[in-house]
Every structure is written in structure tokens, then in C-alpha cells.
Amino acid sequence: MYLMYDGVRVLVAAGHGQALADAHHVLGIEQALRVAHERTVNHAVSAWPILGVTMSYAYATLHYLVTPIVLVWLWKKRPWQYARARTTLVVATLLGLVGFSLFPTAPPRMLPGFVDTLAKYQDWGWWSGDASAPKGLGGLTNEFAAMPSLHVGWAAWCGWQIARNTVRRWLQVVAVAYPVFMVAVVIGTGNHYLADAVAGLAVIVIGAGIAGRLDRLRDRTPSAAIPEYPPRPDPAARSLT
Fold first, then answer.
1. CB 126 within 8 A of CB 60
2. Burial level of 170, CB count in 10 A (0-12/13-18/19+)?
3. What is the pLDDT of residue 226?
4. DSSP letters of 77-146?
5. What is the pLDDT of residue 174?
6. In the beta sheet, which residues pair with residue 127?
7. 65: which of 55, 72, 156, 214 lies 20 to 30 Å off by Cα?
8. What is the mean pLDDT of each run of 10 residues along the chain (241 residues)?
9. Are 185 and 44 in contact (CB under 8 A)?
């Protein structure tokens, strides 16, 4: 999947004009629906260092840490849930890559009137002014991958898997709060629109549907097609002897 991501990054590298046009389309739709509040949230977050730095760290770090931790936890502690959860995550990520290639979208921070929060506070962290890439590695990231927001999609997947696989109430509360917090993070840092967050949730729902369908297809595999070892004796043959 990383190689596919790298290929998509190369494909859209020359599409700066198209990515900006798509960004204006997304923002125009939100304005028509009267839900375009990203600029207000972005300015509020970037104006306060405690919010700007905290959310910058969250944007640059949490999806790299929390997602694999939850995946390994499921594999180790909830193996009966692991396969479908893994397939959901993989399918959703692949759908995200399709979105990045077919609909390259510049993030809000590239549009007039928005603040690039990570760039503003880059002296406080390890990231650079190029999205959340480490300093000196900006060329390894796709800056036109706003639609859908996999930050939000992966956070929703993590929250869903934790909430359904634990009985600890405090952990369930954290699981529900995590994707909500990530929506605030991606909008507050100027990296995604509300529509991107909704699209990120959508790819997880679609991924879950496809994973469930694949599970049902496996369950319908005729058991007679699987050879039995050792072969069961034939009752008719036994009666003849």
C-alpha cells in the first residue's frame, strides 16, 4: 500500500491547479450547505500555542502510533475479530488512495484566509512546513491528499474496534472521543475540510461492508470441497463386507 501511495503521490505531483480547483469546489459545496466553519476553527486553534502545538503533534503523530497499536492488540487479544477488522482497514485505505488519485484536493492551509498551523509551530516539533512530514522529507508526502481524510477514517476505525472489544467504560469513552478529537485536529490545523472528514468515515463504512461480504462468501464455501483427512469410511462399502 505504501508503494501505491508513493505512485499516487507521483501522479498528482503535477496537478497543483486541479487540486486547488477541487478544493474550491469542496469549499463551495460546504458554503452552499452553510457548514463551512473551517476557517473559524482554524484561526481559533492557530492563535493559541497550547492548542496549536498540541493539535500539531496529534496530527503528525497519533495516526502513526494508535492505528498499528490497535491492529496488533486485536491480533494478539481478539484474534476472532482481527481478520475482518484488518480487511476493513485495508479496503478503506485503498479507497482513500483511489480518492487521492481521482480527486486530488489541496488542503485548506493552501487557500487564502487559512493558517498552516503545523508550519506556524514547526519550531516546536519534528515536522516541517510540508504537511506532517519530518524536516527534510517533505518530498515523501502527498500534499494533495485531503479527500478523504484517512486521519479521521483511521481514528474512527480505532475507536470502533476499541469500543466494541472492551468492557472498560473509561476506555469506551476514550474510544468514542478519539475520532471526534481527530476531526477537530484536522480542521483546526488547516489540513482537511469537514467534507474530507465525512468522506473518511464513509470509506470505513464501505470497507466494513466489503469485509463483511468477504466473510460471508468464505462462510458459504461448501465443506464438501474441502477433503477430509483421514477419509471417512463409506457406510455402503462397510455393509457389503
1. yes
2. exposed
3. 46
4. H-HHHHHHHHHHHHHHHHHHHHHHHHS-B--GGGSTT---HHHHTGGGSSB-SSTTPBTT-GGGS-TTB-
5. 96
6. 134
7. 214
8. 67 72 94 95 96 94 93 94 94 92 91 92 70 56 84 96 94 96 96 96 96 84 50 49 43
9. no
> What is the C-alpha end-to-end distance of the chain, expressed in Å?
60
Indicate the SS3 state at residue 174.
helix
**Interatomic CA distance for residues 21 and 120, integer angstroms:** 25
- Distance, CA of 229 to CA of 212 (rounded, Å): 30
* Ramachandran angles phi, psi of 134, nearest 5°: -60, 155
The structure's pTM equals 0.83
Q: Give residue 205's identity as a one-letter amino acid code.
A: V
What amino acid is encoded at 152 in this protein? V
User: What gap in Å lies between CA 8 and CA 6, rounded to an integer?
Assistant: 5
| Cell matching residue 151 | 486521519
Rounded Cα–Cα distance for residues 186 and 161 (Å) = 21
